[in-house]
């Protein structure tokens, strides 16, 4: 198996790992959305009056951002472009301590 094929397999494996991580994070979204909507029934969601409201809004937004970034990174690694290939295949003798 050539070095290029090994790099291709490693990047695909890493992309699958990122996709699994994103899917795990997606399972938490319904809970966070429910908590946020429950608060929305009392007051406006964006008029954060106390610490609990801010916490639920922040965790929901950050969850969406994290899932989006994980899926974008997985797509980048799945394609295995030249930049990703260079990241996974260091030239022999170019190791830095």
How is this structure best described in words?
78% of the residues lie in helices and 0% in strands. The model has no long low-confidence stretch (mean pLDDT 82). It has a domain at 21-86. It has helices at residues 3-42, 51-79, 82-88. The chain has 97 residues and is mostly helical. The radius of gyration is 20 Å and the shape is elongated.
Distance between the termini: 28 Å
| Mean pLDDT level | 82
Computed structural class: mainly alpha
Fraction of residues in helix:
over 70%
Order of secondary-structure elements: HHH
Unreliable stretches: none
Q: Into which percentage range does the β-strand content fall?
A: under 5%
Q: Which descriptor suits the 3D outline?
A: elongated
How many strand elements? 0
Largest pleated sheet: none
The number of helices is 3
Radius of gyration: 20 Å
């Amino acid at each position: 198996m050539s070095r290029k094929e090994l790099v291709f397999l490693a990047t695909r494996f890493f992309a699958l790992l990122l996709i699994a991580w994103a899917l795990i994070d997606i399972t938490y979204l319904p809970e966070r959305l429910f908590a946020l909507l429950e608060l929305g029934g009392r007051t406006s969601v964006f008029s954060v009056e106390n610490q609990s409201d801010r916490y639920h809004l922040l965790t929901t937004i950050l969850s969406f951002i994290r899932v989006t970034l994980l899926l974008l990174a997985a797509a980048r690694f799945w394609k295995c472009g030249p930049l990703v290939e260079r990241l996974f295949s260091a030239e022999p003798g170019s190791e830095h301590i």
